[in-house]
Structure formats: structure tokens, C-alpha cells
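Lecture notes, part 5. Sequence design as translation. It can be helpful to think of inverse folding as translation between two languages: the language of shapes and the language of residues. The source text, in C-alpha cells, appears below.
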């Protein structure tokens, strides 16, 4: 039967688009559902600040009147300008194991992008780096995280059959911080004295937001600027993320490093894994999903897995041991709170600066994900 592609219009179809992923992976022990309310805001052109420089359309695939796939088509004009490209992105792609379905979905993205003057297609990518990116190609038997994509093994097989090639790979690690490595201790003491650095901790979300909220995301823009596909956060995005993220993190697991003038030069932010909580809540806050999420975040019987959400170091301080100072402060906190291991979340495979920070820990590279690309014909 022919595949019908329908452009999403209205809240009812957007709900189908968002919840199709949950339907596809219901009962899967490794998939972690998106939080429905977050997705509503992400795809809302009035609420998502990324629409200042992005445009998008969302498509649903039907076969015999049954919903069998979805995909978002995105153009990030700021990223295209920064990297001198004409790329249309595909993201939030899901499909049954039918090559006609995956082909029709990607063709819809290609045609939409071509009509907008784009010459290449790449993905899976979101609006910005704050969205999940990269199709899983290794680690299908590993629990996913809140910040990453889970997909069935046949997804990358379809991409290769359809002529897509590797554009970039990310690797992920399980990190077991048994104790602060001795070398970390020595490096931490040395660089703290050498550069007159200070460790700053906060107990008030309002206070950290007021003092360093802006600086944290400005530091991200500076530290992440050279990374694949990165587009700088706008002021509206920074304001949005300060309000969205800082109030929900456990500030014990947030460490700031400043110089002698109290200028921010590094930040490390981590939080308890929400993977199991999101599975139990089915990606919904109501009626009882909020309980599982709050339990994972703040109660004593939290998950044993830790998510390393953000590590950013000012470029001139990279490769000087500042990461060791961050983790020398954070590891005792992790141990006190009872975490057994940490998830690094995706790191570009060629990003040696990031991966070097794990060399003194027990690690296991347990997942790999890929962004694909293709010329639009």
C-alpha cells in the first residue's frame, strides 16, 4: 500500500506526533520517553526561543490509515551561517521496519529543505545542542538517558540503504568514580594555587541564577563553539534555560570555578538519572508522574546512576587541569549521595580534550551514536 505523508497541523496532530515515540517503544526496557509537556513547548513556535533563528515542519507517515512514522524538518539558519552550509536537519524520526516508510519520511524533509534552498540533509539533530541528537548505532541493550535518543537497530540499517553516510559520531561512557584519583588531587592543588582559582558552591537557585546564570550559558557558547553543528545560544534562549534548569538541579552537584576576579572559567552540572522515573511516569507529569520525577531528583532513595549534564571550561583554561579541580569537588558529593556510576552522555569521538578527563577513572565505552548526511537530489 502507498505511504501517505501528512504535515502536522493543530494540537491534536502534534500530540500524535509526540506520543508516537512512546507507542513505538512501550514496554521497551532501554528506551526513555520524552516528557510530554517539554515536547509541547519544544515544538511550539511561540514558546521555544530557538524559533528566533529556526524554522520547522513536522510530518506523519500513514500506511493503511495507520500511523507508522514521524519526522521533524528543521533549518537552523544561525548554524548554517556559522558553518557556511545549506543544511536541512531531520530530527525526532521514528518509523516501523519498512524501508518505504523511512524513505517517504526523509524524502518529505528533503523536498521541504530543497524548496527552501537547502542542498544537504543531516541528522538526527534538533533545533540546537540542547535537543537530543545522533542515532544510536551501538549499545541497544543499554538504558538510555533523558538527554539522548534510543532507537531500534534497524534504524541505521535503513539510513545506509537510503544512501546516507556518516557525518559525525558521538561516544558515551559509563564512569565509575570510586575515589578521587591521586593525580587529580595533585593537579587540583597545583592549578588552584598557580592560577588563584576558587571553587564556588550555592544553596539557593535564585542566588546562583542571579550571580552566574548568564555567565554559565555564555561560557557554554564560548567552550562549545568549535563543536559539530553548534550554534550560539541567543539571549532569549539563555533567559529561558536559566529559568528552566537552575531551579530543578540539586546544587550540591553543581560546581563553579572562578578566577581571582570572580569571573567564571568552568562549570560542572550533574543530576540523578531520570531514566527510570520517566519510564514509570510514561513521560507524563499527571496524574502521578511528578512523584517519580521528584523522588528521583530529591529523595534519599534516588537512582544509582548519575547524569553528567554539562562540563564547560573556558578555552584558555582547557588542558590545564581545571576538569580535575571540578571533579575533585564533585566526587565526594557523588559518593555521599550513593551514586555507583555516571553516564557521560554524548561526546564527539574526536573531542580528545573531553575524553582525556576520564583517563584516570574506570570507564566503559558502551554506546555510540551517529549523525548522517546526504546530498539532496
Amino acid at each position: 500500500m502507498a505511504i501517505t505523508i501528512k504535515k502536522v497541523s493543530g494540537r491534536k496532530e502534534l500530540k500524535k506526533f509526540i506520543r508516537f515515540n512512546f507507542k513505538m517503544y512501550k514496554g521497551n526496557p532501554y528506551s526513555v520517553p520524552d516528557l510530554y509537556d517539554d515536547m509541547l513547548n519544544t515544538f511550539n513556535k511561540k514558546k521555544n526561543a530557538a524559533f528566533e533563528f529556526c524554522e520547522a515542519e513536522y510530518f506523519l507517515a500513514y500506511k493503511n490509515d495507520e500511523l507508522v512514522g514521524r519526522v521533524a524538518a528543521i533549518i537552523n539558519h544561525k548554524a548554517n551561517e556559522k558553518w557556511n552550509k545549506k543544511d536541512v536537519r531531520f530530527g525526532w524520526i521514528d518509523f516501523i521496519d519498512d524501508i518505504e516508510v523511512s524513505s517517504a519520511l526523509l524524502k518529505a524533509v528533503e523536498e521541504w529543505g530543497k524548496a527552501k534552498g537547502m542542498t544537504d540533509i543531516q541528522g538526527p539533530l534538533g533545533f540546537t545542542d540542547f535537543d537530543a541528537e545522533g542515532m544510536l548505532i551501538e549499545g541497544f541493550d543499554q538504558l538510555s538517558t533523558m538527554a539522548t535518543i534510543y532507537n531500534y537497530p534497524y534504524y541505521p540499517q535503513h539510513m545506509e540503504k537510503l544512501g546516507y553516510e556518516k557525518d559525525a559520531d558521538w561516544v558515551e561512557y559509563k564512569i565509575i568514580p570510586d575515589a578521587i584519583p591521586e593525580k587529580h588531587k595533585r593537579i587540583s592543588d597545583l592549578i588552584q594555587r598557580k592560577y588563584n582559582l576558587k571553587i564556588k558552591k550555592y544553596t539557593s537557585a535564585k542566588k546562583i541564577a542571579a550571580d552566574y546564570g548568564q555567565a554559565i550559558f555564555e561560557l557554554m557558547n564560548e567552550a562549545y563553539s568549535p563543536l559539530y553543528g553548534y550554534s550560539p545560544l541567543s539571549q532569549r534562549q539563555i533567559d529561558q534555560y536559566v529559568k528552566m534548569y537552575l531551579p530543578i538541579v540539586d546544587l550540591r552537584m553543581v560546581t563553579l570555578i572562578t578566577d581571582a576576579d570572580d569571573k567564571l572559567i568552568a562549570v560542572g552540572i550533574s543530576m540523578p538519572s531520570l531514566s527510570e522515573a520517566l519510564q514509570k511516569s510514561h513521560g507524563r507529569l499527571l496524574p502521578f508522574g511528578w512523584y517519580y520525577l521528584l523522588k528521583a531528583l530529591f529523595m534519599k532513595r534516588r537512582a544509582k546512576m548519575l547524569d553528567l549534564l554539562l562540563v564547560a571550561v573556558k578555552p584558555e583554561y582547557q588542558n590545564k587541569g581545571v576538569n580535575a579541580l571540578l571533579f575533585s569537588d564533585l566526587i565526594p558529593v557523588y559518593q555521599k549521595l550513593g551514586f555507583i556510576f555516571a553516564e557521560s552522555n554524548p561526546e564527539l569521538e574526536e573531542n580528545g580534550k573531553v575524553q582525556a578527563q576520564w583517563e584516570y577513572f574506570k570507564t566503559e565505552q558502551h554506546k555510540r551514536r551517529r549523525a548522517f548526511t546526504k546530498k539532496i537530489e
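The translated text above is only one of many valid answers, since several sequences can fold into similar shapes. Residues 197 and 246 are 23 Å apart (CA to CA).
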